[in-house]
Amino acid sequence: MLNFLKSTVGRKYIMGITGLIWMGFILGHMAGNMLIFLGPDAFNSYGHAIVSNKLLLYGTEIALILAIIGHVSSAISLTLENRSAKGSRYAVQAKGEKSTTWASRNMGAQGSAILAFIILHLITFKYGAHYQTTVNGVEMRDLHKLVLEVFTKPGYVAWYIVCLLLLLFHLSHGAHSVFQSFGILERKMQAPLKKFAWAYAVVVAGGFLSQPIYVFLVNR
Amino acid sequence: MSSVLDSKIPSGSIENKWKDNKFKMKLVNPANKRKHSVIVVGTGLAGASAAASLGELGYKVKAFCIHESPRRAHSVAAQGGINAAKNYQNDGDSIYRLFYDTIKGGDFRAREANVYRLAEASVSIIDQAVAQGVPLAREYGGLLSNRSFGGAQVSRTFYARGQTGQQLLYGAYQSMMRQVDLGQVELNTRREMLDLVVVDGKARGIIVRNLLTGEIESHSADCVILASGGYSNVFYLSTNAMACAVTAAWRAHKRGSYFANPCYTQIHPTCIPVHGENQSKLTLMSESLRNDGRVWASKLKGDLRRPEEIPDTERDYYLERIYPSFGNLAPRDVASRQAKFRVDEGHGAQGQEAVYLDFRDSIKRLGEDKISERYGNLFQMYEKITGENPYKSPMRIYPAPHYTMGGLWVDYNLMSTIPGLFVAGEANFSDHGANRLGASALMQGLADGYFVLPYTVGDYIANTQLKPVKDTDDAFKAGQDGVKSEIQKMLNIKGSRSVESIHKELGRIMWQDCGMSRNKAGLTSAIDKIANLRKEFWNDVRIPGVANEVNTEIEKAGRVADYLELGELMCRDALSREESCGGHFRDEYQVDGEAKRDDENFCHVAAWEWNGSADKAQTRHVEELKFENIKLATRSYK
Amino acid sequence: MSSDKKNINLRLKVWRQKNSQTEGSFEILDAKNVSPDASFLEMLDAVNEELIQKSKEPIVFDHDCREGICGSCGFMINGEAHGPQKGTTVCQLHMRNFSDGEELVLEPWRATAFPVIKDLMCDRSALDRIIRAGGYISVNTGNAQDANNLPIPKPDADEAFMSATCIGCGACVASCKNASAALFTSAKITHLALLPQGRVEADQRALDMVEQMDAEGFGACTTTGACSAACPKEISLINIAKMNREYLRASVTKKEELSGGGDG
Fold first, then answer.
1. Which architecture, in CATH terms, is A2-87+100-217?
2. Does CATH number 3.10.20.30 belong to domain C8-118?
3. Mutation test of the interface with chain B: which of C17, C40, C63, C69, choosing the one with the most B Cβ atoms within 10 A?
4. Read out DSSP for B294-346?
5. pTM of the prediction?
6. Comparison of pLDDT for B262 and C256, the residue scoring more
7. Catalytic-residue membership of B332
8. For residue B3, what pLDDT is reported?
9. C87 Cβ partners below 8 Å, 6+ apart?
10. More exposed terminus of chain C, fewer Cβ within 10 Å: N or C?
């Protein structure tokens, strides 16, 4: 099994499994955040429910941390190897039918930006200003207030939008590539899985995007 | 004429010759096999299958190929299929029928015993290939599919779409790579054999040039197998790959291996015609096209109209006219010759060297879909090369050199006139007589490599006193010196003509005078022209670069130098064979355009002995051919 | 042949490199009066003839059958492996696909595992070593049962054939930004794994071939699809998926070899 994990194929499985964990998480995260459209109480109660369930909270956090470590470390080691495998680059890039998509060629750059985004995102929200509120007599953190505060800053919203667009491309390729890496792609599944990957990416990135835009334009 | 050629055909009935012979052969003890080494030159079907099989038996095999990988060998390009007398179709095929068809197809100029053994081995080849994972075509029931090919009256051809050669080659190549992995075969790529080393009258090694470094290397062994392919590139334009050369065989010839029937060459009827001066090679299109395509030429001389504008009444469907029973499916040599006659008489397509292969009627009859299903990939290939759409206007085709039946003379055991030098596949002369049937080349290469050489090589080793030989011995040093000085000599000429231009000129002479039809006057003048061209080569060739690195011009020059000697021998062989048979057609010996064989005087193999220099005439030896099972008869396809 | 198009002139920017030890650079060469019916390699032949006339060394490139099946030829034309036409090797690419006055940049396959030998020629022997590691079925000559004793469903046989058509030209590696040999390796693993006679050794084969692929210094597949787009035989990416699956299964379920079981 150690050989498996050292091989290029094995590390692609790690990329895939860890990617899938995050794919599941961000879909849930996006759906939960949609509660912002229902107002501060719903949004804050949802947040409170999650942090109150310590098992769920820490379990998820550990899984996500392990997954991102696996994802990023595999990505870095594979990228370094891939660079040395390629050696020098061509003077001209393919343009015609034999060219590839921008998303697939730049997964590393997208991933790096997304990683930076995640870290900043945690600093801004998880470890950001701690406002208090009371909903139905229960004391809880007023995240809604923080969100409103942040999403009314044009600079932050712009950065957020750029990162989410990168996420869109990252997911559009990753959500398809994962099936390839796992070896569950068959001839007849090729086209539908590509469509699925795009649909997933659009739903996740679109959902996330709707929130700052809503706050910035409507609910300020 | 002398007869020093002992074919070593075993006695007994044709059915038992090989079986009995196999039993009589001496065996090499398994523990001793690893002490014996075998050199295999060439890793196409014959070479790779021999190297793999001998490696499996336990011999130490050293394999050499000119390419960067054995998978590049030109066997890869064979399209149509491979014959085998499996009779899976229950249509009356048998080993005897395949034997009969091959002898008749070869116009009674092949050895009965060899051909019978070939037909016997054909059956095992298919089993072997399938066991190796060669993806031959199958029916819905999961069993192997067959088609009828090259005018055969039974369906005995196994195929893998249009890539049968590729798939069979990969099967043999993979088997050989397995032996490489096991340490039984040592693979030497990008090496060109430039001399054979003979010690005490026995072949004991080779001199090769490392094509990457230019280094001249010596390699010794207990015996040498040549599987270096055919010599169609003597015509410059042929369907052969660019690196196909006579060099390995020719250098062995110069060391005493007789060259048999050099004039037997096969011209394939359905190739894409020449487009211009810069053309480097010709592309063959599968013969299967003639199953639904009709071949015609304009009845008018010098007709420059586009083919679609020529009405049916002005078209000459000449194969259907001359050969009503075989029609468009007449054998290769016959179909090729008739196309040449049309063009010579001025009926070429729009004044060019081509005739039409027309699908108009079958598209009308079967629909474009059906035709596309059958020949889609071929039509696509044609369009890619010519830029014309064969669904709309007829294809233009013209014959092109494709295969050479002649080659180094070998006895029944595939051993040449030099003891310890075995020759397999297209490089030998043995099984196809004066004309090869479609789908038989793959069969012969693999039969030699898988099922003949593993026995006969063992028998030779077991029966022969082989004194130890090192690749540092004098004979090897002398061989190296000879090769080095010849290369240096060529480099020093620094003349004005490129190797390519001389090769092209040789090709034109050969095609003109020693091609689809030959005559005394043409051949005599060709011999002079070639001798002059050879002189010009050695006085005026220009080879840029140096010897001790990659230098493709040195490689080509050596090959062309050999073609300049072989070309002359082909003409001499054609001149001395005063009859027409198979691919050898002499204008003087015909009855209304049909070949007239002379069994009384020429029912023999001609094998030529080198006499020390290109300027000295070679000696013609004969091996009489006896037909004890199949009666000599005139081939007729009318 | 009877093409109505006129002859064209091209400007070639060709990679020239003396050998693997020296640095290479581009040389500008003109290809004049090129027939649209000529193949790309025939165009280069003519350029080479001119170079030889000037006592210069011709451009070196690998080539042999010139009918798209031997896999010898291949280089980059304007960043595309085998040039712009899909499903085509460079020897089958014809000049009618180019227009007068175009500039074409010709570069060798670039990958650390494919060192440049000279000009446009590189060393692809790594591919042979991958086959050598396990790309075969272990059957000795004479060891086979009757071919029709083993029926194989036609769809499996056809799929195996599609994978087996790989000509080993290396365009997949060359076009991949990671220089991955996954398409090449997977095509052979898939071809043999689909057939019952190849199943017996499928696990060991997958392990050995992937290990060799990695050892040769090829990169990892990141599913850009460049390989399949460049492949002259248009071999599908699903081969790579199948290889991954074979490799995972083999890694998880591989049986331990028992000592003393082999030789009786």
1. Up-down Bundle (1.20)
2. yes
3. C69
4. EEEEESSTT--S-GGGS-GGGEE-HHHHH-TTTGGG--HHHHHHHHHHHHHTT
5. 0.96
6. B262
7. yes
8. 56
9. C231, C232, C233, C234
10. C
